Amino acid sequence: MSIRLRLTMWYSGILAGTLLIFGIGLYFFLHYYLYDQIRADLQRQAEATYQRILPIYSLRGSGLDLLLDDQDMMSSSYYTQIYNFTDNTVSRSALLQQYKARLPVTDNTRKTLQSKDSYFEKVTVFKQEVLLFNKRLLLPNAGGGGYRLVGVLQMATPVGPFERFFDILQYILAFLAFVTIVVAASVGLFLARKALRPIDRVIAAAGQIQDGADLGRRIPYDGPNDEVGRLTHTINGMLDRIHVMYTELDEAYRAQRRFVSDASHELRTPLTTIRGNVDLLEKMWRRSAEEQGTQLADPAQLQLSLEAMQDIAGEAHRMSRLVSDLLSLARADAGVQMERSELELRPLVEEVARRAQFLERKADWIVGSLDALEGVRVIGSRDYLQQLLFIFIENAFKYTPSGSVTLDALRSGGQVGLRIADTGIGMDKEEIPHIFERFYRADESRGKTSGTGLGLSIAKWIIDEHGGSIEVTTRKDEGSTFIVWLPIAFPQPLE
């Protein structure tokens, strides 16, 4: 849920609560105020009527004849009635006589008047709701000492119009509250969208910077220096610092890549010269020893000299491979695109399989079925693909002190897979994510097998350049399986 929508819902809810409290308060205030006025007027009219009939009521001490005798003319707008409890007779005002109606008197009325001088109640008279005021009529007891209830003076006024007014008022308040909330929510959403529009621009600009990796872009803002303005200026300042740091790091990285590339290139020439001269000296030494015989030289010293030259040659060869690997990785870092062309894959793999049997190894070399490569052509570099296969095969030989190394092929859809499986030392599953990192070597192999830890990094780069993928399956002390998947250039159509 967006911020603008949450803000709109929050102040719409607060407004709805405020209007609800205000409407309920207004309703009950008007209800209480109007009914209080009606009760006061009704009680005042009843007391006035009581005072007018009081002389007659007092003279008729028998309490058997309680009549209005036209004494309610001043309250002709009210329904007035006197009920005599002694003989159950009723004296009504003109309005009640006109409607032929009576105000209700029940047993509950008599019980209530026994303890109260007067009270109000709502009743229905000739199908309309009225507010009824009851006032008791007392006469002294015949023997003296106290009073007895002889009747009740009742005065009522219609309240139906007021009830209808309050019903209408409920609907009006509810409708006005609904309209107010809808209008306020619409206006609030518009204002929230307008207020948060600069943040949308910030998000859009930041997204463009992220997608385009253009750290030189800045977020435009021409509004006031409020919270959004300060946020925009802060982000722009942060982008400035990031741009400077990124530029410095990129320049340093470019310089490092140039250094590695130049150093690797420069080291190749003297290493080649060293290897050539060592090979030449070794050949000359052997020839001279054979021509002159062992009389002119100590055989042990001659053997030590030969071993020293072989060590120099081996180390020079190892340094040459390392420099070659570093040069390949430097080219990869520099973004050098290898030259690729359409080529047939099976002859290439068969050539690698033939040459692999002459590599130094202790395991058996098994070439499985290559029928899946029949007629398969890929877009790639012959030299780099051969280097890729030799990296995996040499690694398999290196980490398989006994057992076998197998090469075969398989197809799946529009891809062809080259599988190199061994029965060597294998790896832990925690090591798999790191085997393609530069200079990474499993702890178990350090000191036991030679290598630089760059071969699989180069292999991963070659696979990526050919649009392929690598699948690794391994188990500790049971061996490893690498499957190199390459996209087929022109898959054969189905017959």
From TrEMBL:
Q: Which residues form the Histidine kinase domain?
A: 262-490
Q: Name one Pfam family in it.
A: HisKA
Keyword Kinase set for record? yes
Membrane disposition: Multi-pass membrane protein
Where do the coiled-coil regions begin and end?
A: none
**Gene3D superfamilies, A to Z:** 1.10.287.130, 6.10.340.10, Histidine kinase-like ATPase, C-terminal domain (3.30.565.10)
**Could you tell me which residue ranges the HAMP domain spans?**
193-247
- Enumerate the UniProt keywords alphabetically: ATP-binding, Cell membrane, Kinase, Membrane, Nucleotide-binding, Phosphoprotein, Transferase, Transmembrane, Transmembrane helix, Two-component regulatory system
What is the name of this protein?
A: histidine kinase
